[in-house]
Design a protein that fits this description.
This protein is 34% helix and 23% strand. It is α+β, with helices and mostly antiparallel strands. Helix 1 packs across helix 3.
């Protein structure tokens, strides 16, 4: 497999960082990483892109079920009580150490409960390269990242639309095209923005844009 192919490298790196690359394929990818700098750069780029989601996510403590689950996994009940299990001080000290480490790493690795089912989408170009990533947070905001600056005609802009099966497309806003990020509010009339498809059109700027008949690019939401 040609790991220097841009689309293949980008797709594998994205699936590896998101966690959807599993089993033998993930282990093979991890063995290849130390010997392929281009794969390492692709993984680093995707980690940087997804870490931007943490900036838009408000911090929140994990629910009590997480702590109870950790305690059950770290100290399972045993039918035999050894002298070690009788030392409550050492067990408490170990639990406190583990919890302190989790709290220290939580801002980077733990999603708050209300963000656990963030909807995420990657909008790809004609060559399957990722042009934008879109994340829908629980507070109803859309976080849009333009991953590479684009050469746009002077009188044209790219616009993001939400298309459901039974309704005409609803415009969500203008997309950034200079390699930057932007936060878009969900329109008031849209009650379930995580349903349906995301469409991208290229149109001239106008006070009121007509809904498109078909998109330039389109994609579906994924649960993150």
């Amino acid at each position: 497999m040609n790991y220097y192919h841009l689309a293949m490298r980008d797709r594998l790196a994205a699936e590896y960082v998101l966690g959807t690359l599993q089993g033998p394929a993930r282990r093979r990818f991890e063995r290849l990483l130390p010997a392929h700098p281009v794969l390492q750069r692709a993984v680093t780029d995707w980690e940087r892109r997804l870490n931007r989601l943490a900036v838009a996510s408000p911090p929140a403590p994990p629910p009590p079920e997480v702590w109870r689950g950790l305690e059950r996994r770290l100290f399972p009940a045993s039918p035999r009580r050894s002298w070690w299990n009788g030392l409550i001080f050492w067990r408490g000290l170990a639990l406190v150490s583990v919890l302190a480490m989790i709290v220290a790493l939580a801002p980077r690795y733990v999603l708050p409960p209300q963000e656990a089912d963030i909807s995420f989408a990657a909008i790809r170009g004609k060559q399957r390269e990722v042009l934008w990533t879109v994340a829908l947070a629980g507070d109803g905001r859309l976080r849009v990242d333009n991953l590479r600056a684009m050469a746009m005609p002077p009188d044209q802009r790219c616009f993001l639309w939400l298309k459901t099966a039974s309704d005409p497309p609803v415009m969500l806003g203008a997309l950034p095209d200079d390699g930057s990020a932007r936060t878009l509010p969900v329109p008031a009339g849209v009650t379930r923005p995580g349903r349906g498809e995301l469409w991208v059109t290229m149109q001239p700027m106008a006070p009121k844009l007509q809904p498109p008949v078909e998109p330039l690019y389109q994609t579906r939401w994924q649960a993150l």
